[in-house]
Design brief:
Layout lengths: L25 H16 L10 H26 L7 H24 L5 H6 L1 H20 L10 H15 L7 H18 L6 H11 L4 H16 L4 H21 L13 H5 L22 E3 L5 E3 H9 L18 E2 L1 H14 L17 H20 L2 H17 L1 H9 L2 H8 L5 H14 L3 H8 L4 H12 L3 H14 L3 H9 L3 H10 L5 H17 L4 H6 L2 H11 L4 H14 L3 H9 L2 H9 L6 H18 L1 H8 L4 H10 L6 H19 L16
Antiparallel strand pairs: 1-2, 1-3
Protein name: RING-type E3 ubiquitin transferase
Catalytic activity: S-ubiquitinyl-[E2 ubiquitin-conjugating enzyme]-L-cysteine + [acceptor protein]-L-lysine = [E2 ubiquitin-conjugating enzyme]-L-cysteine + N(6)-ubiquitinyl-[acceptor protein]-L-lysine
GO molecular function: ubiquitin protein ligase activity
């Protein structure tokens, strides 16, 4: 069987067909043509929402060619046909055409692409027309006169040639009418006018988008196309389509039920709000967020386009290590690509565009105004709608606030925050959780932070109340994440710290066995943010008992590397202060940090925080701590390894720590040894 490209990773309306090799046996070629034809005929006209007439015509031609291929296969097997080069050439061309037709039919029925294919029905028709006429060209080269086939088969070939040569595939009349309606909707949006819902339903019914879940699929597809880096004209249309279909989902098709509601599981997305350094997602060569990360044999990751240019310039070394490569083979780094995609989705960033912040719908006026109309509708539903309408609006707000900074801004401007804050005290556990998730997402918006906190900080106290007394674990987890975002503002960080239950509530999540790693990380990065943005919070964190909790947590070895990294980062920050340093040392923090630094099972980021912790302990603990550290035979090797790995910024700190140890050892062997004041003596180990 001839290998053909699969459509799984193929961009829509691209047809990467594979040419059969010149030496292929004719029996193999005919068998493959029949299989391809069978796959094409498995598509049924009822499965297509647009270009139905072109589809029917194409399937009719393929059915006729199947009769020809089957008869040809019979004649070849009985040896009554001598096949020359012209026969192979003609059939090979048909094989390529069949592959492209299969791709085109797949695109016409692709899940989530119905609206996109409607708006591109002119281009789709042109593809049908070109491919259908190519069938005639290929059959022209088939030597009908020199191949002994039955007369009715020859007549069939001539009939298909005449029909395909005259193919005039055009967009269907109903498709044109639907397209005109969509552009009319765009015009209404631009003038802040809500379109007639019946007219919208007519268009949606025409393309087969009849349920809330159908809209979700359309949105996911359009978002992927926007992220693919299209031209400005294409992006403008895609943005308008995104605004339109989001409006349809929220305002027109509001039939959300328990089974339909998105199961995005914010726990997975909240993993992205940890202390992720966006620089780790950038290509070391271009310094841009990678769009197609690949790995070299050295284990380092680069963007495919950048490393390809590096090799094309005559370099055969790894740019980061300088090591000469045995092979320049590139292996897709799917795990990094997944992280980048999640990060971009969560933060509204389009990868491969120099990390520029882009929202999914601000490239056209129609999309912008549609977003505002959608936000105003949802805000009104929270205030004036019944219980069912309010719940549906909450779900939509929860989803939209995750989509982009643009939607977050629209919803804040529409006054959604104030309504959500009131709903936080709902006795309905599900309602409280959904409202808290929306608040958490809106806390990423600058204006949203101000609205949430309130003039007197009352909003912060309400979130802390949910943090401690929320009906569900998920609600408390979202509250912790919201505090992280809000604490990025210095004044709010101070106000949160001053709320007596805030930091203890975060520490309880970290300590509790009822929460998974995702929840613990939300609490940890909130604590870390409170420390970073308001130094006075360090004594509150210390008083909440965070040091023994974190040391016990790390010692348990039952947590992920991410939790370990966040814990060590907080301990390093606490060790910047004398009282924090003493607390860490008295509970065995020095020995634990050395152990983790020498481990081969932790990430470079975790080791970076270990180095920072050790350096702060030495700076504040004096020569007795440095001396205790110098006694460990493995420490220098671990530090030299860390200093050579500057990928996570730990190289300079490791070098500084090495210098401290060397200076201590030189002083120790000299004539004068410094005397440590009695009150500064600490048992480091």
């Amino acid at each position: 069987m001839i290998h053909t490209q699969t459509g799984s990773n193929r961009r829509i309306l691209t047809f990467p067909a594979v040419n059969p090799c010149e030496s292929i046996a004719i029996t193999t070629l005919v068998d493959s043509l029949l299989q391809l034809a069978g796959e094409i005929l498995s598509f049924k006209p009822k499965d297509f929402s647009t270009n139905k007439r072109s589809v029917k015509e194409t399937l009719r031609h393929i059915q006729s060619l199947v009769i020809f291929f089957e008869e040809l296969r019979i004649q070849i097997r009985v040896g009554s046909i001598s096949t020359g080069r012209s026969v192979i050439l003609s059939l090979s061309e048909l094989h390529v055409i069949f592959q492209k037709l299969k791709f085109l039919l797949e695109d016409c029925t692709r899940e989530g692409a119905k609206l996109y294919m409607l708006m591109n029905s002119g281009q789709v028709s042109a593809h049908f027309r070109a491919l259908t006429r190519s069938i005639s060209t290929s059959l022209d080269t088939f030597p009908v006169g020199s191949v002994d086939l039955p007369g009715e088969i020859n007549e069939l070939i001539y009939l298909v040639m005449r029909q395909t040569r005259k193919s005039e595939a055009r967009p269907d009349r109903d498709d044109k009418r639907a397209i005109d309606s969509v552009y009319w909707f765009f015009n209404l949006f631009e003038n802040r006018i809500n379109p007639n819902s019946d007219e919208i339903l007519r268009v949606l019914d025409h393309i087969g988008v009849r349920k809330w879940r159908d809209c979700v699929n359309e949105i996911d597809f359009i978002r992927e196309e926007i992220s693919a880096g299209k031209s400005h004209v294409e992006i403008e249309l895609l943005s308008s389509l995104m605004g339109f279909i989001c409006y349809c989902r929220c305002v027109i098709l509001r039939g959300i039920d328990v089974d339909d509601e998105e199961k995005d599981n914010e726990e997975d997305d909240l993993m992205m709000i940890r202390s992720l350094n966006v620089d780790d997602l950038r290509c070391p060569i271009s310094l841009e967020i990678m769009s197609d990360p690949v790995v070299l044999e050295t284990g380092h990751t680069y963007d495919r386009s950048s490393i390809t240019k590096w090799f094309a310039s005559g370099n055969i070394t790894c740019p980061k290590t300088g090591k000469t490569l045995v092979s320049t083979a590139l292996v897709d780094n799917f795990s990094v690509k997944q992280v980048i995609q999640s990060y971009c989705k969560q933060n509204g960033v389009v990868s491969g565009l120099k990390g520029k912040k882009k929202t999914v719908v601000v490239e056209s006026l129609a999309a912008e105004e549609a977003g505002k109309l959608t936000a105003e509708f949802l805000a009104a539903e929270l205030i004036n709608g019944g219980e069912e309408e309010m719940v549906k609006a909450l779900v939509e707000i929860r989803i939209l606030t995750k989509t982009s900074s643009f939607f977050r801004s629209c919803l804040v401007e529409a006054g959604v925050v104030e309504s959500l804050m009131k709903i936080l005290r709902s006795e309905d556990q599900r309602v409280q959780e959904t409202a808290m998730a929306g608040i958490m997402n809106l806390s990423k918006d600058i204006a949203g932070k101000t609205r949430i906190a309130g003039e007197d900080g009352g909003g912060l106290r309400l979130i802390v109340e949910v943090l401690n007394d929320g009906a569900r674990r998920e609600s408390r987890q979202y509250a912790a994440a919201a505090l992280f975002y809000l604490s990025s503002v210095g004044d709010y960080s101070r106000l949160i710290g001053e709320i007596s239950d805030a930091i203890p509530g975060l520490v309880r999540i970290v300590k509790s066995c009822d929460y998974g790693d995702s929840a613990k990380r939300n609490a940890l990065i909130a604590i870390r943010s409170l420390l970073m943005n308001q130094p006075d919070n360090h004594w509150r964190v210390l008083a909440a008992g965070v040091v023994p909790v974190l040391l016990d947590l790390v010692k348990s070895e039952e947590i992920s590397d991410g939790v370990t990294a966040d814990s060590m980062a907080i301990l390093a920050k606490m060790a910047e202060y004398p009282d924090g340093m003493i607390s860490v040392l008295r509970r065995g923090g020095l020995k634990l940090a050395v152990k983790i630094l020498g481990s081969s099972e932790v990430s470079p980021a975790t080791k970076q925080h270990c180095v920072a912790l050790l350096l702060n302990l030495c700076h504040n603990g004096g020569s007795d701590v440095v001396g205790s550290l110098a006694k460990n035979p493995s420490i220098m090797g671990s530090l030299y390894t860390a200093s050579s790995n500057g990928e996570f910024g730990g190289g300079k700190k490791a070098s500084a720590l090495i210098k401290l140890i060397h200076e201590f050892q030189e002083r120790k062997t000299g004539p004068v040894e410094p005397v440590l004041e009695r009150e500064r003596f600490i048992h480091a180990w």
